[in-house]
Every structure is written in structure tokens, then in C-alpha cells.
Amino acid sequence: xxxxxxxxxxxxxxxxxxxxxxxxxxxxxxxxxxxxxxxxxxxxxxxxxxxxxxxxxxxxxxxxxxxxxxxxxxxxxxxxxxxxxxxxxxxxxxxxxxxxxxxxxxxxxxxxxxxxxxxxxxxxxxxxxxxxxxxxxxxxxxxxxxxxxxxxxxxxxxxxxxxxxxxxxxxxxxxxxxxxxxxxxxxxxxxxxxxxxxxxxxxxxxxxxxxxxxxxxxxxxxxxxxxxxxxxxxxxxxxxxxxxxxxxxxxxxxxxxxxxxxxxxxxxxxxxxxxxxxxxxx
Length: 282
Description:
It is a single chain. The protein has helices at about 15-25, 50-55, 75-90, 110-120, 140, 145-150, 165-180, 200-210, 220-230, 235-250, 260-265, 270-275; strands at about 5, 30-35, 45, 65, 90-95, 125-130, 150-155, 185-190, 215. By secondary structure, it is α/β, with parallel strands linked by helices. It has a domain at about 5-130 and about 165-190 and about 255-265: 3-Layer(aba) Sandwich (Rossmann fold). Strands 3-2-1-4-5-6-8 form a 7-stranded parallel β-sheet, with helices on both faces. Strands 7-9 form a two-stranded parallel sheet. The chain is globular and about 55 Å long. The protein starts with a strand and ends in a 6-residue tail after the last helix.
């Protein structure tokens, strides 16, 4: 059977980069999207809460790229996807998780990721789990205005993380999607080659962009109050606090050689990421 790939989250942070690379490589794949189609790409629409629609989306597919947004229903959605995958005859699942995953942790983000990983591992379907660290792209998606306004506020203390570029995350996943048997049963932690905290990240940005922004560490209580003031849902507030607690506790410091081992290329450095996107913060 030809290796036909289905990319879930085809328009998301990781998914859109996976789609881009698979297209460049001329791979046989289709992308699952919520509403809008992706130009030049075969797309299908499905609802993670609707087994029938998921099974239909998987018709003719042998390898599934499974990435889920952080959501209270993540574990349930994962269960639905697995059930549909079994019915559709999926041969291999590449599950994009996170380096923080731990189903036994009291921290929400770790528990959510870990529980969904366990669903995949218990499925009986061949799998590979890829576990990236914090995205460099967070400085675009979440912190652009704060940085331009002079300060990034986070309740992360001086906690370090091995920031990784989404382009590297996608490159690792695409290599696995195209060669699933080579990576069967593996859990690969994807990181950059450097580990540093928010203060150091902002300093690197300032050096390249010629600005004088700051990182200001705040308490969990202050962060919670600020998010409540912006009417963030309780789930998102707990999720963000748990993410920063991972940094404070040193859980995200580890660096690995996975990017180079899988792709043959060294990870993109944070300085390069800033250079590539400098107009965004100008």
C-alpha cells in the first residue's frame, strides 16, 4: 500500500509548515482543515467530535499526523481520532506532543499532553511521538505587541527553555511521516541547541533589532489577575500558569540532538529566527 498521509491541523502552527514541506517534496498527502482550504493542496474537513467525519477524512490513508490544539477536550478528541484511525485501517500515527508531557503531573499542560500520548501508545497502531519544546514563534504569535511596547511580562521567573523553531519541528515530523517504519515506537524530544530564559531572549532580540525592551517577571497571581481582566477562560489561564511553572521548575531546559540526527541539519538558532522575522517587531 502506498504511503498516503493525512495531516491534521493543516493550517496550524506546526501543521502549515508540515504541509509546506510535504508539498515541496511532492509527497502523497491531504490536509485536514476546519473551514478554509489550502491552495494547491488536497484538503478534507472533519470534526474531532464526530467519528463518522473523521473516519471519512482518513479514507485511503496509511499514515496519520496527529496534532491537537490545547483544549479541555484534547484527550476525548484523541480517543475519537484513534477510534476512527482503527476503523480506517491507519498503519502508523505520528503524534505531535510536547516535551513537557507527563500524564501523572498535577500541572495541566503536562497532564493533557501525557494523557493524549498514552491514548496513542495504547491504541495498538504503530506510532512515533515527537515532543517539541517551547516554540520560538511564540515571540511572534503572543509577544509581538508586548515587545514593541517595551516589555514582555511572564510568570516564568528565570526559568530556561530550549527554544525550537517550528520549521525544525516540521522538518523532523516530515522525515518521520515519509519513513515511518524507521522511527516506529520512538519518542523524540525536539529542541533547539541553546537553552535560555526570557530575559536572555529579549536581550538577543534587542541586540539584533536595536531596541531596549525588557522582560519583567511577575507572580502567578499577577498573571492570573491580568488574564482575568482580559476575560481569558479559566482553562486558558490554568494552562498558561502551568506552562510557566514548567519553566520555573526547570522542566524545559533539556537540549537534544534530534533535529540534526533526523534531518541532518543543525537546529535554527534564535538569532537566525530573529533575523528571519525582524520586520515583525520593527
